[in-house]
Amino acid sequence: MTSKAYSIRCLVAACLFVLAGCSHAAQNTPPPPTVKTATATVRTVHPTIALSGIVAPLQNVAITTALQEPTDSVLVNEGDRVKAGQVLAQLNTADLSANASQAAAHLEQTQYQANLSISQGGDQVRSAQAALAQAKSNLQLAQVTLQRDQELL
């Protein structure tokens, strides 16, 4: 048998299979299932799932101060979100206020003493000027007396 005859027989067999598949009557198939539909609306969905676990911060930050003052109040709780510049705690500044008042009093006393020294210095200058005037007067009198004595001799 030649390859041409074999090819024709295969082609005829394939056509018969195709025609046999098309000749069957439609089988009794069940109807498609019904699907419930709903109209879409816009609303907020709040999903909730109860899970157990441990929540850990992304970054821990230690807050310190150079002052050794106790706190009056802490304005945030652990886990609160904070922003840059937000007040976290208020320190008791009674000691600092007392130190500032003491420094202000010391400054005022120092300024008073400086003014007193300046005024006393002014008195000393006036006294020295009077002594200088007296010395000039004594010098002038001594020169006049010397000149007169020299003329007499």
Give me the secondary-structure topology.
Layout: H1 3-22, E1 71-74, E2 89-91, H2 94-152
Antiparallel strand pairs: 1-2
Task: Provide the descriptors you would attach to this structure in a database record.
single chain, 153 residues, mainly alpha, two-stranded antiparallel sheet, 52% helix
Mean pLDDT: 80
**SSE pattern:** HEEH
Biggest sheet features: 2 strands, antiparallel
Strand order, sheet with most strands:
1-2
Strand content bin:
under 5%
Overall number of strands: 2
Helix content: 40-55%
Quickly describe the structure.
52% of the residues lie in helices and 5% in strands. It is mainly α and 153 residues long.
Describe the structure.
It is rod-shaped and about 180 Å long. A two-stranded antiparallel ribbon has the order 1-2. The protein has 153 residues and is mainly alpha-helical. Helix content is 52%, strand content 5%. The protein contains 2 helices and 2 strands.
